[in-house]
Amino acid sequence: MESNSFGNPTKVRRNDELYISAYIEPFCMDSIEVVSQWTITNCTTNCSSSISLNHPIITTFSEIHIPAKKLEYGIYEVKLTVSSVNIHIVTASAVEYIEIIPTGIMANLVSNGTSMITHDPQQYLTLDPGRFSEDPDEKEFNSTKWNYTYYCRIHGVSVIAGSSVLMNDNDEISSPNCSCFTDQFSSTESRSSVTIMANSLVANRTYQFMVNMTHRANPYLQVSGYLLVKVENARSQMIAVGCDLTTMCPRKGEFQYINLSTQLALFSSLMNQTGLLNNITWNIYLGMMNSSSDTQKWSLFTEMNDYRGIWFFGANRSHFTATNQLFLTYRNINFWRFEVVYMSMTEKSSSALHFEINQPPKSGVCSITPSNGTITTKFTVICKDWTDQDGIKDYSFYAWTTHVEQRVILGSTISSVFELRLPVGYGNASLVNVIVQIRDQFNSMTEANLPAVSVIPTRTSIYSLIKAIKISSTMSSTDPLVELLSKNNSVLTGQVTTTVSQVLNEMNTEIIRLGIQNIASIFVSPLGSREIPMSPHSWNTSTFNQYIQQLNDDASVREYLMKSMNDLTTTTWNNILLQASSIALLTHAINELTRDTSMLASSKCRDMAFTLKSMARLVSSNDVENIGNHLIQCATNVLSAVNAPLQQRGAILELDLNRSSATANDYDDDMYLNLNLNGIFMKENEPSYERNFYHQKRTANIIAKQVAETLAAIAVAFNVHLTVGQNTTVNTTSVFTSLEKTLVSSLSNKRISPLGSAQIHIPLSSNLTQSDTVSVWSMIQPLAVASVTPGQVNTSLSTMISLSILDSHGKEISIHTDNEQPIEFFIPRDPNLIIPSMALYNVTLIHDAKHQFYFHLINITQSNVNLTVSLHIEMRPRNRSLNYLMIFRLDGQPQLNTLINNIDDWSLLCSSNISDDGIHKYFINNNRTAKHRFVIIGFRELNTTEICSNKSSTPPITDQPFNFSSDYELRTFTSACYYLDSNNNWQSDGLLVSMLFSLSLSTSIYRMQVGSMTDYYQTQCFSTHLSTFASGYSHAPNPVLLFNDLFAHTQNSCPSVYPGEDIVNGMNLRKSK
After folding, report:
1. What's the mean pLDDT when you consider all of the chain?
2. What is the DSSP letter of 308?
3. Where are the domains of the chain?
4. Which is deepest, 211, 342, 433, 907, by most CB within 10 Å?
5. pLDDT higher for 663 or 80?
6. Mean pLDDT value across residues 119-136
């Protein structure tokens, strides 16, 4: 907290919130306990009037947040007093002076502060600043507190002294050199509005009107408003044009202020619509100052069509958006006009809004000391000599190592001096780059790059923190990181959490690459990643124990950090960004998150998402995207983390297992989990895997609901800044999501390709009205959630894809397609899926005079008959030039000879169609396998006289016994498509695993497309509705060989059950004793 003086207070606009943070560092003894107390005193006349500070202002932390409009205009003393709890004479204090100043009245002559309108001279024109002006410092503008004086001049005529004419009801304007009109006008008694009579304005002229408003109680408080009126001898209507987000373009004199980095979103509307509207067109003009007439010379921007859908969106709609790329590309242009033209069969009307580029702060410097250190070193940044005509608002600090786009925020302050802790550096020099953003009062920003600092990546501090946490019962503040976290300062806690989390994430990546066997059982692959190569060093128990030890140690650190973050208040935008960024990094390694960590992070991020939703209209689109990006990562991280053990994809952490000793009475209300509670909680206060599973499942269901609320709030916040045709995307290793605002008509045959092999294809028809405006919300997460009802589906190696259509209020719209044109999804699997080897069958050694085919039985029994799977058969002959006939029958013996044709289907496996890897592939879709228990397949090698052609309509039939001249290998697996129902159970009704070709139409509910596009790396699915989707996968066991003496058994009873292998096994990752 940097002290200033009463004579030079920090200026704060009344409509801005104020955040002050103090760094408290005791110098006298190691473990002194202190209390903090903030007081605010009004010093406008004298510093004797103390202000009563009530909720929501918290005055006992090391920081204070004062909401907007809380303090009246004037100068205030903000004082922090720190006292020792045990030694009352030990106290210290610091003082900051602030001045609350007016934000600025926006004097609007017409609605929304439109800069220019067209006007029919035969109509009345009313200028009404008393009605349309705005006061950001109050709930509404009080027109009775102001005096109004109106001026007029013909626009474009050189300005000379006295040429503006005072408009007065009773004074006749007789001078031909300065009069604006020849007829009468009138005003209200308070003069808060004036009406110019019909035929007073001359056609083909442009008039400029100005109102000068003076506060009655404070004559020094004055504001002016301007309007250009273009008079055209044709019927027209008044169009109101304004900024969708008024905070993004505040008024400054004749112009709206716009920052180079701000996206501009405009709206327009007819004030009194009459007749039918044919079309809307937006035009953009560049302005150059004409010094002789004190006006701008406007020229049409002719490249709009080249950048439609890139820079410009909604060019023919009432809402129009220009991205900041327009202003960044044409930095030398300081003035812009955005004009909207409404046309009908009989009328043409236009209005415009004028903008001036808000120039960023300049001429200053920033420095940082010392030039090297560790993660516990206190670095100090000093900025000075920065100037801006609107005043400096604040300074924000960022750091990055290898890629500037991956920079992290470290805090912000209104002070020009800032203390911070930096993350570890990269490379041999361990360099960290620091950036300072300097903002003016209207958020125009410039960046200062500081000299790179060396931050040595020693892990001693991390190990010391782990040790301190382990002895928490006797923990002292001697550990530097613990001491910093104990200060309950949001900036310090955010910095420490960011720095420590980055080190832990790096350590987590290193331990994973040691080459743990069956890596899919303890690690969920990041999106877009490839299979992790095994370490050249052989895996052993020591490596595994090292992994377990580090996992549990790091999990305890992350939980300690999250508990520190949980108590922090979320107030200003910068404060929320810092906390969201820190928690996204903290939750990145999902295999190191305990249930408590996940619950705290989920609740915290949900609360911040609600705050983001409420403040979305107050901050820029970039700011909303940055915060939303981190919050989405946080939400999906904790969702994956809490489901990983349930999906047998992550460790059962030691902290979780030890806490799984709660009694049954704690959870009697959770009957929906379908668990035997009495059996699970028979032995109280004793950890067990069953009990841990119960707690994990319960937590997972709570988090699933919170995450849904978090994502819904973020979608609403994103949507505020989108115009039709725009989209916003979050693309990280934790989650991919895209929100696009579009027309229903553009959804027809739309294909979304988020990343990798994931795809979504929306068909030509749906139940929505084609003219509706909707938002398309698609998301991919690296791990499917576990079903509430355990053991029925195997989605553990599937990613999770969701697609929703939202209305203008963010509510989900139900969409349905028909079975002939379903919605198509490609759902990727985890790249670390272990593909089993093919089983070799030495069929050349087998001779059986009784059978024409060599048979295999494959079990496809499902625990729930309503859940269906597809069967995939792969056969690789040792001699790929041979041809084969394959037959199969479900739940029975297939037979095919000249006397008997008892099969469900057949296929010729021709050498001419074999895949590049020498494998014949066959697929039985889940419609055909539904409610069946097993499949028996038979192979026969064709002789040289039998023709193999896929065009054959009948199979080649023989009574000769099978005779194989070459052995073959066989491999089978099952796949499935599931959607998540309202009870968080995976279902497959209405879904069909697809392949390449389409079946003939039938009356079946599964009238869908099929083909050969499901493999080990992805599942292709079709659905007639939108939801959240995942795929199932299981290795089918080596098929059982069947001969004639077994056929009777298989006909009359279920064969021995050979369930599909579990992909992964659950592990208790506790340290070996």
Report:
1. 84
2. B
3. 10-101, 103-233, 235-358, 365-455, 460-706, 839-981+1032-1052
4. 211
5. 80
6. 92
The label of the residue with tokens 């650190």 reads 557
Start-end of H helices in 295-355 = 325-329
Nearest to 932 by CA among 902, 894, 891: 891
Structure letter (DSSP) for residue 579: H
What confidence tier does 373 reach under pLDDT thresholds 50, 70, 90? Answer: very high
Collapsing DSSP states into helix, strand and coil, what is residue 875?
A: strand
Residue with more model confidence, 1070 or 504: 504
In the predicted structure, residue 781 carries a pLDDT above the cut 90 = yes
User: Each residue of 918-943: pLDDT tens digit?
Assistant: 999 999 988 899 889 999 999 999 99
Q: Which of 201-215, 268-282, 989-1003 has the lowest mean pLDDT?
A: 989-1003
User: How far is it, in rounded angstroms, from Cα 94 to Cα 289?
Assistant: 48
Q: Of 1037, 1012, 995, which is closest to residue 856 (Cα–Cα)? A: 1037
Angle at 1048 between CA 1047 and CA 1051, to 5 degrees: 85
Terminal-to-terminal C-alpha distance of the chain: 50
Q: Are 356 and 442 in contact (CB under 8 A)?
A: no
- Band of pLDDT at residue 797, cut at 50, 70 and 90: very high
Note the helical H segments in 427-540.
460-470, 480-485, 490-512
User: What is the C-alpha separation between 581 and 574, in angstroms, rounded?
Assistant: 10
Tally of helices (H runs) and strands (E runs) in the chain: 14, 57
pLDDT at residue 1042 in the model: 64
Q: Contact, 436 vs 407, CB < 8 A?
A: no
The pLDDT, as a whole number, for residue 1004 is 34
- Is 365-455 the same fold as 10-101? yes
Cα distances from 80 to residues 185, 569, 574, in angstroms, run 59, 18, 22
Angle between helices 621-643 and 595-615 (to 10 degrees): 160
What is the mean predicted confidence (pLDDT) over 50-68?
Answer: 84
Residues near 255 by beta carbon (within 8 Å), at least 6 away in sequence: 115, 335, 354, 355, 356
Matching CATH number, 10-101, of 3.30.1360.180, 2.60.40.10, 3.40.50.970, 3.40.225.10: 2.60.40.10
Architecture of domain 365-455: Sandwich (2.60)
Residue position matching structure tokens 């505040």: 250
Q: Which of 826, 821, 975, 21 is nearest to 487 (CA)?
A: 21
* Distance, CA of 489 to CA of 64 (rounded, Å): 10
Q: CB count, 10 Å around CB of 288? A: 12
- Domain 235-358 adopts which CATH fold? Immunoglobulin-like (2.60.40)
Q: With beta carbons less than 8 A apart as the criterion, state whether 155 and 208 touch.
A: yes
Q: Residue 355: name the closest of 281, 446, 442, 271 by CA.
A: 442
DSSP state of 1006: T
Our CA angle for 50, 56, 57, nearest 5°, is 40
- 370: preceding bond cis by omega (within 30 degrees): yes
Most confident by average pLDDT, 2-16, 24-38, 282-296, 577-591: 577-591
Provide the 3-class DSSP secondary structure of residue 303. coil
Per CATH, domain 103-233 is 2.30.130.10 = no
Rg (Cα) of the chain, in Å, rounded? 36
- pLDDT category of residue 370 using cuts at 50, 70 and 90: very high
DSSP 1050: H
Coil, helix or strand for 585? helix
How many residues are listed for the chain in this entry? 1073
Q: Which two tokens stand for residue 507?
A: 């350590």
Would you say 6 and 452 are in contact if contact means Cβ atoms under 8 Å apart?
Answer: no
* pLDDT tens-digit map of 807-841: 877 888 887 787 778 888 999 999 888 888 999 99
| Amino acid identity at 381 | V
**Residues 958-985 pLDDT 10s:** 999 999 999 999 999 999 898 888 888 8
Q: What mean pLDDT comes out for the span 998-1027?
A: 62
